[in-house]
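Page 37, continued from 36.
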């Protein structure tokens, strides 16, 4: 088994949560979302994010609107729906529980004497 495959699967597993979290405080277009994820060291390419955004929209978690840009073509801005906000709350709780469980399992064990 190659470590890179496992690392990529781990990142993919949290990507949906991260995208919804990026959109929690402000609407954003794809380049902004990608920049935020890349700054956080989540290696994402446009070919990965577009299908995911479409799936999130089709699931009712996101909406989008077109806005004119002064530097090029119109931009598609994504925003959380009310359903998306509730979904994010649930994911945040699940992430916290998962993080705590993984930390508990992976911390070095101290032996009792």
């Amino acid at each position: 088994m190659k470590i890179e495959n496992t690392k990529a699967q781990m990142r993919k597993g949290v990507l949906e949560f991260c995208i919804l979290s990026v959109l929690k405080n402000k609407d954003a277009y794809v380049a902004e979302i990608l920049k935020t994820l890349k700054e956080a060291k989540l290696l994402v390419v446009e070919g990965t994010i577009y299908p995911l955004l479409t799936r999130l929209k089709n699931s009712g978690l996101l909406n989008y609107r077109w806005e004119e840009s002064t530097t090029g073509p119109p931009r598609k801005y994504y925003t959380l729906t009310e359903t998306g906000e509730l979904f994010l709350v649930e994911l945040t709780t699940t992430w916290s529980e998962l993080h705590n469980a993984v930390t508990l399992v992976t911390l070095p064990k101290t032996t009792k004497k």
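The first strand starts at residue 28 and ends at 29. Flag for discussion at group meeting. The helical segments are 3-22, 30-39, 46-58, 82-106.
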